[in-house]
Write a structure and sequence with these properties.
- Helices cover 33% and strands 26% of the residues.
- It has two domains: 2-137, Nucleic acid-binding proteins (OB fold (Dihydrolipoamide Acetyltransferase, E2P)), CATH 2.40.50; 168-314 and 376-484, 2-Layer Sandwich (BirA Bifunctional Protein, domain 2).
- By secondary structure, the chain is of the alpha+beta class.
- Strand 1 (48-65) and strand 2 form a beta hairpin.
- The chain is built from 15 helices and 18 strands.
Length: 496
């Protein structure tokens, strides 16, 4: 590799000697590959069309056959063949460099600009018959093998730029992600929701059970946290009078890394005054199915060899009913934690020590026996109050809250509440969470006094929703790992 780099550096020097800068300032293009192919698909084989074009891109491959050469040029929209003929290039007075210099000094990986006319080869390939060329950026390293791409997964993630160069599928994934984010924002904006930005640096991290990243503000000599959710500040906006608000942005949680977790991820949180969790179910169904249809042309998709139907309405079932269906254990019959634990052990489920109540054991039973089997979109409703400190108590079921999580392909994709707006109840719950944190639970909430003060000012009945953008992108791009849909995922340092 070092020898190859030295050779290419010498070629860059040779270009300068010919009066051509190997790293250009700009280049005026007239067309892209995709538009040329679409607009001139009627050009017959073996014919030329006197249309002046200027295109630019990266050289992906070269074939040189004496006085004729064919380069494959890639731009953002696709690839286009360059038809390079010695007599044509050397015979054009505007050409600053010759055919032989082009062949000698241009390598795969280089960015070049060319001008010429269109030609359809005898084999039917639309090409630019090149009159003149210009080096735009000399590549000093070779590209991965064009046929096999990057087979090493770690390299694909660490050097995403190489992955994007050789993998059209990766480029399509990130293009679809961008279009999906735009579609979500557009859908919400059209329904009267306002996107308002909230702080990333917070004096008290809240809104989720998660361990935060800690930093320090030097001027104020103040410890701060990167936000683990946007929830508590968006609710403050509802208190202030905004009836429909949302934020789509980055969240930071100091947790493990897996195929479905990255410490830095993206979510959208939505809050609607005078609504409840049933309204949020309808909104979630409509939003996701609409975005899916817009991006893919259908609400029926294939994910990891599973056929998934996102056509509303989606299944709705309580956590109690789903656990009973999977295990035969009816947690509504237990008043004592040890009795519930004994039933779980008898069925073969694990009983974590930290699960210190019937409600927490119910959630453990759900995660172990139900969650991974929820392939079709399913709203899991009515969670235990112990694991939902920001959700409203259920209007008819004691010990539960009005909360749902959406599961698709065995993964949690969305989470929503009828929001808790009673400041007295909320204080008790946060103080209970703080006690758990003081006892060693680093994912438990603290007490955010300013948030409690906002609730005491008065918050209207509200429904809230959070959707994991990365996991939704995984679903709509048939990606097995969250690292496939985050352009630059966090990775362990390379061993030396």
């Amino acid at each position: 590799m070092s020898d190859l780099r030295e050779i290419r550096l010498e070629k860059a020097k040779a270009l300068k000697g010919l009066g051509q800068e190997p790293y250009a300032v700009r280049y005026a293009i007239t067309h892209h590959a995709a538009s040329l192919k679409a607009d001139h698909k009627d050009l017959p084989n073996g014919q030329e069309r006197l249309v002046n074009v200027s295109v630019a891109g990266r050289v992906m491959s070269r074939r040189v056959m004496g006085k004729l050469a064919f380069f494959n040029l890639a731009d953002e929209t696709g690839t286009l063949q360059l038809y390079l003929e010695k007599a044509t290039i050397d015979g054009k007075s505007e050409s600053s460099t010759s055919f032989s210099q082009l062949i000698d000094l241009v390598d795969t990986g280089d960015w070049i600009g060319v001008s010429g006319i269109l030609r359809r080869t005898d084999r039917g390939e639309l090409s630019v018959k090149v009159f003149a060329w210009q080096m735009l950026s000399k590549s000093l390293q070779s590209l991965p093998d064009k046929w096999h791409g990057l087979t090493d997964i770690e390299t694909r993630y660490r050097q995403r730029y190489l992955d994007l160069i050789v993998s059209p599928q990766s480029r399509e994934t990130f293009k679809r992600r961008a279009l999906m984010v735009s579609a979500i924002r557009r859908w919400l904006d059209q329904r009267g929701f306002l996107e308002i930005e909230t702080p990333v640096l917070q004096s008290e991290a809240g809104g989720a059970e998660a361990r935060p990243f800690i930093t320090h503000h030097n001027t104020l000599d103040l410890p701060l946290y990167l936000r683990i959710a946007t929830e508590l500040h968006l609710k403050r906006l509802v208190v202030g009078g905004f009836e429909r608000v949302y934020e789509l942005g980055r969240i930071f949680r100091n947790e493990g890394i897996s195929t479905r977790h990255n410490p830095e991820f993206t979510s959208v949180e939505v809050y609607q005054a005078f609504a409840d969790y049933l309204d949020m179910m309808n909104l979630t169904e409509e939003l996701i199915s609409s975005v899916c249809a817009q991006l893919l042309g259908s609400t029926k998709i294939s994910y990891q060899a599973m056929e998934i139907d996102l056509t509303p309405p989606w299944r709705r079932a309580t956590m109690h009913d789903l656990v009973k269906e999977a295990t035969g254990i009816d947690f509504t019959t237990f008043n004592d934690r040890d009795d519930a634990a004994a039933a779980m052990v008898e069925f073969g489920l694990e009983v974590p020590v930290k699960a210190d109540s019937v409600g927490r054991l119910l959630n453990e039973a759900f995660e172990q026996s139900v969650e991974s089997n929820l392939h079709q979109p399913t709203f899991v409703m009515d969670y235990p109050i112990e694991i939902s400190p920001l959700a409203r108590p259920h209007r008819s079921q004691k010990g539960l809250v009005e909360r749902f999580e959406l599961f698709i392909a065995g993964r949690e994709t969305a989470n929503a509440f009828s929001e808790l707006i009673d400041p007295i109840d909320q204080r008790k719950r946060l103080e209970s969470q703080q006690a758990r944190r003081q006892a060693g639970d680093l994912e438990a909430h603290g007490v955010d006094e300013d948030f409690l003060n906002a609730l005491e000012v008065g918050m209207p009945p509200t429904g809230g929703l959070g959707i994991g953008i990365d996991r939704l992108v995984m679903l709509l791009t048939d990606s097995a790992s969250i690292r496939e849909v985050i352009a630059f995922p966090l990775l362990r340092p390379e061993s030396k």
